[in-house]
Amino acid sequence: MDQRLSALREWLSGALADGPDEVAVASADASFRRYFRVRHRGGTAIAMDAPPAHEDPRPWLRVAALLEGAGVHAPHVAAVDLERGFVLMSDLGDRTYQQALDAGADPAPLYRDALAALARMQGRIAPPADLPRYDRALLRRELELFREWFCVRHLGLALDAAEHALLDAAFAWLEDQALAMPTCFVHRDYHARNLMVVERGADGSNPGILDFQDAVVGPVAYDLVSLTRDAYLRWEPARITAWIAEYHALARAAAVPVPASVSELALQHDLIGVQRHLKVAGIFARLCHRDGKRRYLDDLPRVVGYLREVVPKQAALAQLARFLEARVAPRLAAVGP
């Protein structure tokens, strides 16, 4: 028997005035958190199960309050039990952007809303002192996932001294570029699986925004590239170029500290995207080999494809580009997802 689910049902009997009629799995993410849809006489709600031994819901609660205060469509918290790791929140529905797109929805209005919500939260959330910074140490920890989990563990590459040196140099250069970029509130996983298709509120807020507990203060283009070069779906370059320009106009109007020119924003979008996709390749490999979640391997070719597309455009990353072509791409094709 699922003892935590039993404990959650017991807690909901007190947290909900009318008690739960049905508690069913809504989703699980890449961590130990689980989400349940709770049906009761008053409607539906979502319950988070965050086992205290593995998860701390306080960062999620902190960012939820920031997002709600910024006027974007984040879940409203109704009840919390930190000791047991339970949170009851409003239900933003069960249709993600990706599900809507897979069913044939027009991406134009969805992404227009997503870009507007991004500019809104960036413009309205002054970087809080208690949010972590995307500093050099954090950037390097993420980049090392590419070396340790993707190259060595997943691909089985025996890296020689020269290859370690080229990765060290590439990582240091990417860190320097990221640290020179203007900063703002960063959701950190702003993409189609974490955005929900919801009815518009009175203020026009849409989409529903989820999975924001890892928010930091970091490069202004980070969430933009998470959305446009999504690890789970791919858009044609012309559409991405148009979205960058659309976001630039929205962000300037919202007083977000974006560069003055669209071209400079596009460059920052590409550079922080390289850092993100190196990290994501490592995370997907770790989710497979450490956590037994093999489904993430199916998306590795797309993530590596972004790297092979963008890295060669930067002269400072020439050695990394050659490494990707000579060592990574052939080995990934051989081991498969």
Summarize the model shown:
The protein has 337 residues and is of the alpha+beta class. It has 11 helices and 9 strands.
- Secondary-structure-derived class: alpha+beta
Helical coverage, percent range: 40-55%
Rg, rounded, reads: 21 Å
What is the typical, i.e. mean, pLDDT? 94
Count of domain modules:
2
Order of helices and strands: HEEEHEEHHHHEEEEHHHHH
- Bulk shape: globular
Uncertain segments are none
CATH topology of the largest domain: Aminoglycoside 3'-phosphotransferase, Chain: A, domain 2
- The CATH H-level superfamily of the largest domain is Aminoglycoside phosphotransferase (APH), C-terminal lobe
Major sheet: order of its strands?
1-2-3-5-4
Description:
The structure is a single chain. The protein has 337 residues and is an alpha+beta fold. It folds into 2 domains: 3-89, Phosphorylase Kinase, domain 1 (2-Layer Sandwich), CATH 3.30.200.20; 97-335, Aminoglycoside 3'-phosphotransferase, Chain: A, domain 2. The chain contains 11 helices and 9 strands. Strands 1-2-3-5-4 form a 5-stranded antiparallel beta sheet, sandwiched between helices. It has a two-stranded antiparallel sheet with strand order 6-9. Strand 4 and strand 5 form a beta hairpin. Helix 5 (136-154) packs across helix 9 (262-289) and helix 7 (222-228) packs across helix 9. It is globular, with a radius of gyration of 21 Å. The mean pLDDT is 94.
